[in-house]
UniProtKB/TrEMBL annotation:
GO terms for biological process: amino acid transport. Keywords: Amino-acid transport, Signal, Transport. Gene3D superfamilies: 3.40.50.2300. This is Amino acid/amide ABC transporter substrate-binding protein, HAAT family. It comes from Roseovarius marisflavi. InterPro entries: ABC_transptr_sub-bd_PQQ, BCAA_transport, Leu-bd, Peripla_BP_I.
Length: 396
């Protein structure tokens, strides 16, 4: 009798055991650019930025994977921009075909163009609209929101609040001007009007000296005096030169949005809705710090991979990519609704958090903005606006 029971248990185990083990290895490649220290020491960059989110995602994938015969592994690498391509090629030579890449547009395109035909790249940093349009690549899936998604998110909120008249201050660097262009496009899209514009020129001076606040307190009111009467000042300062100083330093009382004040974010460490508290706690237990947007973007990338592997049972990059872009894919990501990809340019649809330094104040898309396909498509490039042709063949 005992022998029969043992045999039955083995038979049942064989029935529930996966037919074969699935092993999935991904890599996070972070390109570290030379930058100035942030204005606030509270914003100092942690050494594991991005990597920590990938580690948490790998743990999450393993939790599901162990019941389905799936094993997940992660490699991480940091590189200066000069050697980023060589670092990518070294990882790819190990047979890795799934990459979460934290790089700016130029390095990201170089990596995508050097990738093997079956490699899938998740963009976790570059916000450039061109990457979702004329400069798109079919092997890149964008989990980071585009600039246009973020500026549209701000514009919707300001229009919902009935604040359609904006003053725009932008920095002097190319990224700042690109962000300013996006705010102009968002204003036109939703019916706002930019009444005044100023450019803040970066002179390269110290931003964190003992007398920094004294100079700011004298200079910024005079700089913003031409905007006297503006109720909303929209700031475009991707390089973190001036916007942080603007609140309370304008000539006239004014609300600040954009790169300071109310900011559009893919993630905020104070978010508690939609099960995010438990998610935040797990990350903080793992890292002893708060989760940043770069961590969340890396987590998203590897969770997209894990979800696709779980649902398809496949590890083939072409199958994973096809499933992610299909209408069957959706990902729960602690944002109140399931996330999906735009099949015409590989952008992940997602709500945008609007937050100040302490709390999440709102989430876009806002009430009243409608779309025939998805309310999330009211933010960013819609299909008729995108010049991306790299996804057309796969979509058809």
């Amino acid at each position: 009798m005992m022998r029969w029971c043992v045999a039955l248990l083995f038979a049942l185990g064989a029935l529930i055991r996966p037919a074969f083990a699935v092993e999935v290895t991904a890599a996070i490649l972070r390109v570290d650019y030379p930058t100035l220290l942030p204005v606030s020491r509270l914003d100092l960059r942690p050494d594991d930025l991005g990597f920590a989110g990938g580690i948490l995602a790998t743990e999450d994938n393993q939790t599901t994977g162990r019941f389905m015969g799936q094993t997940y592994a992660l490699e991480t690498a940091a590189s200066p921009p000069e050697t980023a391509l060589a670092t990518f090629e070294a990882l790819q030579s190990k047979g890795i075909r799934f990459f979460a890449v934290q790089a700016r547009m130029s390095e990201l395109l170089a990596i995508a163009d050097a990738a093997a035909p079956d490699t899938v790249i998740f963009n976790t940093l570059a916000p450039d609209t061109a990457l979702r349009s004329e400069d798109c690549r079919g092997n890149i899936l964008h989990v980071v929101p585009s600039r246009k998604m973020k500026t549209d998110a701000v514009a919707q909120f300001l229009i919902w609040k009935k604040w359609p008249k904006w003053a725009l201050i932008h920095g002097s660097h190319p990224e700042d001007r690109a962000l300013a262009d996006s705010y102009r496009a968002s204003a036109a899209k939703f019916g706002a009007r930019i009444t005044d514009e100023l450019e803040f020129t970066d002179t390269g001076g110290a931003r964190r000296t003992d007398t920094g606040h004294v100079l700011v307190q004298r200079q910024l009111p005079l700089f913003t005096q031409p905007l006297d009467g503006a109720d909303i000042i929209v700031t475009a300062d991707e390089t973190d030169v001036f916007a942080t100083y603007l609140p309370y330093h304008t000539w006239s009382p004014a609300l600040i949005v954009g790169s300071a004040g109310l900011r559009p974010l893919s993630w905020h460490p104070a978010l508690e809705a939609w099960g995010a508290t438990q998610f935040q706690n797990r990350f903080e237990k793992l890292t002893n710090r708060y989760m940043r947007a770069e961590d969340y973007n890396a987590w998203l990338a590897l969770r997209v991979l894990g979800e696709a592997v779980t649902r398809t049972g496949a590890t083939d990059p072409a199958a994973i990519r096809a499933y992610a872009l299909s209408d069957r894919f959706e990902l729960a990501a602690f944002k109140g609704q399931k996330l999906t990809f735009r099949p015409w340019n590989g952008q992940l649809r997602q709500p945008i958090l609007l937050a100040d330094g302490r709390i999440t104040l709102s989430v876009s898309p806002q009430e009243g903005f409608l779309h025939q396909r998805s309310l999330l498509d009211t933010m960013g490039l819609d299909q008729p606006e995108s010049a991306c042709a790299a996804f057309t063949q796969q979509e058809n």
